[in-house]
Amino acid sequence: MKEGREIEIMNLFSWWRKGEGEVRIKGNNKSILIGNKQGLFDDIVGFEDVKSLFEMAIKAERPVHLLLCGPPSSGKSLFMSSLTKLERSYYAVGSSSTKSGIFDYLFEHRPRYFIIDELEKMNKKDQTSLLNLMASGILSELKHNQQRTTQLKTWIFASCNSIDKLLPPLLTSFAIFHFKPYTEEEFVDIVVDVLDREEGVDRDIALLIADGVYNQLKSSNIRECVRIARLAKNDSVQVNIIIDTFSKYGMKYTLFEIIHSTFKILT
Fold this sequence. Notes:
Layout: H1 3-17, E1 23-27, E2 30-35, H2 48-59, E3 66-69, H3 76-83, E4 89-93, H4 102-109, E5 113-117, H5 124-136, E6 138-143, E7 146-151, E8 155-160, H6 168-171, E9 175-178, H7 184-199, H8 203-216, H9 222-232, H10 236-248, H11 255-259
Parallel strand pairs: 3-8, 3-9, 4-5, 5-8
Antiparallel strand pairs: 1-2, 6-7
């Protein structure tokens, strides 16, 4: 096979692996199908009922707003990450709502889907603007002593660790799903799936990593499992050494790192 043809096929396969769509390789009057477009939530293990409700909301003719609430490492950020695959979607973190110019983006680009992680860290002023958008479809903001207003048809999908700092009227605008931390069984299933599909790790090694992270490191951080897998390279002895070292020196993470530990691990 010519070098140019090899590069073309590798590029097509990479494109398919990223979920861009169906790929066919043509040659010698033949067409070979090597894949179909990846589903929106294919990267998430379980939560079939929640996936179905998100799909219903996305297909609804008028906006339906959904909020996932629960502690870190409960699957919320995986949903937020998956939703960024939607066309005309915009992802933001609530803690940076003002300084990052989120509302400037909304006015300029008019996204159909607004995805917000850490919603509880959005200040009260921005929460009020968000509430007005959800209730009336009108986005209004006072900036530099000038009021600007626009009409938007936008679905809001958000996550938070706690609802305590959210305005009560804002909460009533959402359908709220309360997530619990992964059980050990759920965590193991997810780790085995991710490490097999994305890192090419043998099942026995993936099970060893999942057990060590959950029981020895007392963590349900999937990103940690990915790190260990990449360091160990399918070597069980190295897995144990790495976990023992992490445990000895007390690997610590900020709340921000924990919340975002699973964001885009599959890209």
